Each structure stands twice: as structure tokens, then as C-alpha cells.
């Protein structure tokens, strides 16, 4: 029996429904919008009916699309469970785990963890995506990612959240700048240009809250999305910054002043997954590795 659809087409169709647009679905899948549109058109052609229609600024299901959506989700979940069940009979751990995380953890924590996983489980592939906490958690909710390792807090009734790692913040400045005190208070930074993370991230919110608690309202000289760019601007003497210790390599400590904060400020990173998500063997390996990770 030849079915008029593929699982890939069903995945694209349900993701368009969940995100409300072709462009958002394409972004989640890491493909172009025309590719998503082509998959949906092919599915509609094979099914012999329209499945999606535009409702205001979003895309919604037609009556036929509503019917298909329920069956599609059941088929996709059955496919995932089948793949995991068969993999459990093989030797070792295999398959793909889709992980979402922030750029700092991706650069400074994940490489050595993924290196160990590849050494111990060469048939297991960990596909990593980066973004801010809200975007990553949204993709986990949509089942576009299996697992998130992000800065907390995360508020969602459908998510299981496990705090995993504490990462302290420090002030960094160039060696050529005025010498920082042994421990730095927010008021010490009131008149110094600051290079901060771009707005919207949990990390930026935590830094701003720490400053505001001491009555310091910061006006950043620069707001950047790359922690490596922030360090380079600080090294060039264009301002100081407040960064997580995880982001500082040995070489950074030799070319930058680094001081603890008073009162101390830290962020908490944690594992986030759907409560109804079956835990495959590959996910178990990754969860165990992340749970035992330590910031330097």
C-alpha cells in the first residue's frame, strides 16, 4: 500500500500549524521558506484537498487539515518511538539527539562534553542549535528539539526543568584600564562605559537586575550578541563588562582584569524537556553528561 504522504511532510505540516507561519517553521527546521511551502503543496496535492489557509496574519488548518493534524501527530510520535525501540536492540547507543543551548555554553562547555560522547558512543549524533532561552524552549515545546540546556528560569507547565550548573559572574576590563578593586560593587561601575549582551536574554536581565538593585541604571556603550565580540571590545579598552566565568578561557585571564562581584551574582543553567517526552538511550547519555558538567 502506497501512502499519500511521508513522515517528513507530516512533520513540516504540523510545525507550520504550531508556529502559525511558513517562515517560522522554516527557521525551526533550518531550511528555506520555499522548501517548506513545497512540502506542504506536495502533501495537499497527494491528499487531494487544501490543508492550510491564511487566517489574518497566521496560517491555520482547514477542516481537512484539522483531521489530518491529529493523525499526523500520532504517526510522528509512533515513528519516533519505533526508531528508539529498534535502536535499543542494537549494540551501543545510536541515533540523533537534537539539543538547543545558548552561545556561551556551546562555545565553552559543550565541545569537551561532545568530544567524550563521540569517543564513547560513535554512532550517536548530537545536533546542536543555539539561540536565547525563550526561543530554544519554544522549539522544545514544539518538539523541534529534544532537549534544552539553557539559562534559567524557565516557566512552563509542560516542561520538566532540572537545575544543573551554577556559573558565577565577574567584571572584566582591559589591562590598560584603571585598576579594578579586589571585589567590584555596582556603584564602582556607574561611570564606566559598559559592553553588555544584547537585550532579551536571561543573562542580560540578570546583570541589569544586579545593577538596578544598587541604584545603577546602566546605559551600555555597546550591546552585542556575541560573547567573543564583547571580550574583544573590552580587550581594546572600549569598556568593561560583566561575564559568566564559563566564558573566560585561560588566555582571556592573562589579557584582561577579572574581579568577583559584591554581592555575588551567578546564573543557573538547567536541562529542559517536555514532560511527555520518552527518554531515549541517546538522550539519557546526553542528560548524564550535561548533569555531571562543571563550569571552570
Description:
- Residues 5-62 form the HTH lysR-type domain.
- InterPro entries: HTH-type_LysR_regulators, LysR_HTH_N, LysR_subst-bd, WH-like_DNA-bd_sf, WH_DNA-bd_sf.
- Belongs to the LysR transcriptional regulatory family.
- With 296 residues, the chain is of the alpha/beta class.
- It has three domains: 7-87, Orthogonal Bundle (Arc Repressor Mutant, subunit A), CATH 1.10.10; 95-164 and 268-291, D-Maltodextrin-Binding Protein, domain 2, CATH 3.40.190; 166-267, D-Maltodextrin-Binding Protein, domain 2, CATH 3.40.190.
- The chain has eleven helices and twelve strands.
- The chain has helices spanning 7-19, 22-29, 33-47, 63-87, 103-108, 110-120, 133-141, 202-213, 227-235, 250-255, 281-291; strands at 52-55, 58-61, 95-101, 124-130, 147-151, 159-174, 183-184, 195-197, 222-224, 241-244, 256-261, 266-274.
- Strands 3, 4, 5, 6, 7, 10, 11 and 12 form an eight-stranded mixed β-sheet that branches. The protein has a two-stranded antiparallel ribbon with strand order 1-2.
- It is elongated and about 75 Å long.
- The model has no long low-confidence stretch (mean pLDDT 90).
Amino acid at each position: 500500500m502506497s501512502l499519500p504522504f511521508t513522515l517528513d511532510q507530516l512533520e513540516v505540516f504540523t510545525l507550520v500549524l504550531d508556529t502559525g507561519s511558513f517562515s517560522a517553521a522554516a527557521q525551526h527546521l533550518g531550511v528555506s521558506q520555499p522548501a517548506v511551502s513545497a512540502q506542504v503543496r506536495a502533501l495537499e496535492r497527494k491528499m487531494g484537498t487544501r490543508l492550510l489557509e491564511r487566517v489574518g496574519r497566521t496560517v491555520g488548518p482547514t477542516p481537512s487539515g484539522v483531521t489530518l493534524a491529529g493523525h499526523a501527530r500520532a504517526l510522528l510520535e509512533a515513528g519516533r518511538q519505533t526508531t528508539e525501540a529498534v535502536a535499543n536492540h542494537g549494540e551501543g547507543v545510536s541515533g540523533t539527539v537534537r539539543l538547543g543551548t545558548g552561545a556561551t555554553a556551546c562555545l565553552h562547555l559543550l565541545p569537551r562534553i561532545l568530544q567524550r560522547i563521540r569517543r564513547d558512543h560513535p554512532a550517536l549524533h548530537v545536533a546542536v542549535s543555539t539561540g536565547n532561552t525563550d526561543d530554544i524552549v519554544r522549539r522544545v515545546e514544539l518538539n523541534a528539539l529534544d532537549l534544552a540546556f539553557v539559562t534559567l528560569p524557565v516557566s512552563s507547565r509542560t516542561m520538566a526543568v532540572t537545575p544543573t550548573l551554577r556559573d558565577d559572574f565577574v567584571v572584566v576590563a582591559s589591562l590598560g584600564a584603571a585598576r579594578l578593586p579586589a571585589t567590584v560593587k555596582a556603584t564602582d561601575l556607574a561611570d564606566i562605559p559598559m559592553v553588555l549582551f544584547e537585550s532579551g536574554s536571561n543573562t542580560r536581565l540578570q546583570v541589569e537586575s544586579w545593577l538596578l538593585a544598587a541604584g545603577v541604571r546602566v546605559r551600555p556603550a555597546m550591546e552585542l550578541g556575541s560573547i567573543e565580540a564583547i571580550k574583544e571590545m573590552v580587550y581594546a579598552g572600549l569598556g568593561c563588562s560583566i561575564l559568566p566565568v564559563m566564558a573566560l578561557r585561560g588566555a582571556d585571564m592573562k589579557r584582561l582584569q577579572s574581579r568577583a562581584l559584591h554581592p555575588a551574582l551567578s546564573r543557573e543553567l538547567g536541562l529542559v524537556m517536555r514532560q511527555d517526552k520518552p527518554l531515549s538511550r541517546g538522550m539519557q547519555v546526553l542528560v548524564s553528561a550535561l548533569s555531571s558538567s562543571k563550569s571552570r
